[in-house]
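Consider this pair:
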Amino acid sequence: MKRTTLSLIAVATALAAVTGFAAMTAPGEPAAASAAAPQAARLPVERTSLLCPAPSGSEIAETLITSYTPPGTAAPAAGAGTAPKPSAVLGVAKNPNAAGKKGKAPKAPASVTTPGKPVSADADGAVTHGLTGTATGTLAPGWTVQQTTLVTAGAARGLLGLNCSAPDTDFWFPAASTTKGRADYIHLTNPDDTLAVADIELYGPEGELKTTIPEGVQVPPHSTVPVLLGPLLTEGAMENLTAHVTTRSGRVGAALGSAADGVGSDWLAASADPAARVVLPGIPADATGVRLVAFAPGESDADLKIQLVTTNGTIVPAAAESVHVKAGMTASVELPDLTRGSAAALLLTPTDPKKQIPVVAALRVVRGKGSDQEMAFVSGAAPVTARATVADNRAKGTALALTAPEAAAQVKVTASAGTEGGSPATRTVSLKAGTTTVLTDLAPKGVKGSYAVTVEPVAGGGPVYAARTLTVTEDGIPMFTVQTLVDDRGTVQVPTARQDLTVLDD
C-alpha cells in the first residue's frame, strides 16, 4: 500500500476519534449522501493553558493572583468512567537567571473546583518566578488568571495588571522603549518539556535595529526568562520602539513589563494580530497624556485616520487627525488633552478604504500630574466574538468600557460571586453605534472579595471591544491598570469526519 494512502487513513481515523463518530460510506455511493453529512460542530475545549510572568522584584510588592472559570459551557459528552476529573492548576516556572538572588516562588491560588467561583492567593514581596497552568474538563472553557501587583514606592511604584496569556509563537509589542529612566523587560515563559528558542526583533523610527542576540534567547522547559531591552541595542537608546517576539522552536508566553522613573510601571500585553483596522479601548476620562505608537509589519506604508469613540459619539481629536506609518518602521503621535473628560477608545482606520494595510498599535496612557503621575498601557484589541472574562475586580475602583465602533450592539455582562462570598448578577447592556459605554457599578450586592466580569455579545449586533480599568489610589497617586478583554476561545469548531473507502483505490 502506498504511503500516501496510509496517511489519509490515519487522518480520517484521527478526525473520527476527535468528533466521536464517523459516518460509513461505501465506494461509489452517491454524492448526495455526502452532502447530507452532519456539519462541523462547535464544542467546548477540553484543555486550556495559561502563562504568567514573574510579578515583581520589589521587596514591598503586593501581588494577588486570581483564577476563575465562567459557568455555562457544558463539557463534551464522554462514556461512563472515561472522563478525567476536571482540574485547574498553576505551577511554578523557574527563573534560571535568578539563582542565588533574593525572591520566592509565588503561591499558586487554590485550584478552581467549580465554574463560577473565583479563587485567589497572595504572593507578596520579591517574586522571581512565573506561573504555568493548565485547566481540563469543565474547568477549561474560559479559564482566566489575573495577576495584579501593587508597588507603593520606589522607581517601579505603580499598579501592574496582566491577564495571563496562552502560549503562542508570535507577539507584537508597540510602545516599548529603551530611553533613559525607562526599564523594559520582555518576559518569556516556556510551558513545555522541551527547550524553546525565541527571537526578539526591535524596530525604531528608521526600521529594524541591530541587537546583541542574533542566535535568539533560550528558554528552558517550565521556566521564565526576563530580557532587558536596553542592553540589546547597539545603536543607543530609543524613545519609541516596537518589539516583535517569534519562536524558532517551541512556544512561549510573552509580556512586556515597563517601569519609568516618576511615571510608574505596568505590563504591556501583546497587541492583537496585525489588521487594517485597530481599536484601542479603555482610555480613562481623566487621562492627562496619551501617546500612540504604531507599526506596519508589511512592505507597504499605512496611512491611518485617527478617531475617538467617546460616550457621546465618534469624533476626530484636535491633537491629530491622521498618522503615516512607514513600512517596517515605528511611528508615534502625542495626543495631549485627548479625552476631555470622556472615557473613550481610539479607532484607527485606513484613510483610503482601498488600501487595507495591516498594522499593530498600542497606547501609553498617563493619569495625574507632576510627581503624582502614573502610567498604563492599552494594546490594540480584537473584538469579543463569543465571551471574554477579566478577573480580580474590586468593589471600588473598577470600570468596564464597552465600545461599539461600527453598529449598535447588546452585551450580557455577568459579575461573578466574590472570592469570599456573594451571589452573581447579570444584566444586558445596549450599546449605541459609534459610542463607548462605561460601567462602574459592576459589583453584585453583598459580594465579598474580588470578583470576575464576563462579557458576552448578543447575536445580531456589531462588533464589541472591551477593557477593564482597575484603580487604587495611594498617597494621592491614581495608580491604575487597563486590561483589554480577549475572547476566551472556550469552544472550538470540530469537523465532522466520515470514512471514505475510495481513498483505497490506487
Residues 1-35, 77-81 have pLDDT under 50 and may be disordered. DSSP finds two helices and 37 strands in the chain. The helical segments are 3-19, 31-35.
